[in-house]
Amino acid sequence: MATTMCLLLLVPALLLLLSDLQIIQCGGMSHDDGSNIGKDESALGKPSNVTVSCLNLNYTLHWNPPSSSSEDGTVYYTVYYFGLGFGWLPLPSCVNITQHSCYIFPVFNTHDDVFRDLKVSVQAHDEAGSTGAPANVTFNPLTNATVGAPTVTLPPEKIGPYEAVAYLKAPISPIGDTVVTQQLTEISIKYNISVWKQTTKILEKSLASSIDMTHLTDLRPDTSYELRVFTTYDTMYGMKYSPDVATSTFTTKQKSPSYGPDIFLGRISEPNCAQPNIRNITIKWKAPPVDSWNGQIPTTR
Full-prediction pTM beyond 0.90? Predict the structure, then answer.
């Protein structure tokens, strides 16, 4: 009899526990993989072509609108991120937005985040409250980051007739306001430097990103050039090239001509009895070749 009474008392408790579990599963958000951020209960599809750009560790999520859109007005988007120990959470600055991108760095803003897989998701919903399925993406800053070109400076006092000095400053990382090359120490980052005279490349070399200056040699006086610098870096997937190119134009200083003019003796006037000590002499000359001028020759004397 006592056993029967215990069973009768346990059955309602078990039913109540099962009921609570059902409520948690149906009404809660199990965000372990992002599949249940929202159910596809409308004509809204999920955003397509979801990508993350990681230029200089500034992470931005991009996406295209769903292929099937709602007829209930404007489509809004909410971005979620996976927080360690917290599951999927909405990104406060990207809730109910209409644009197709979101700056997600504020929630992945530590040096440790550079070395782990980061998860984000975007979900569409309309004014009627219908919600489409989420679109998820995982990225790793260390392997997916793009390192931009350095800032290039050519001080006028460092530009001579035959060479110039260029100073290079790596892009600033938002993590600790330090240069991005100090955050990505595990990647071999180099600068590709080239000097162009119109469409002809006259100089090319590669420098480690730890070097902040370079000498540009074998230049000609009074000649215009363009300096181009971009970043290359090795990852586990091979060499990558940044599409970001820094350019700077400069003109070398003039220098004295390499050669003087060719002089020809012209005519010597006949002696004048009234002025026997004075005679007129005519001298002619020919300018040196243009490529030896080393600049402009405004006058000849």
Answer: no
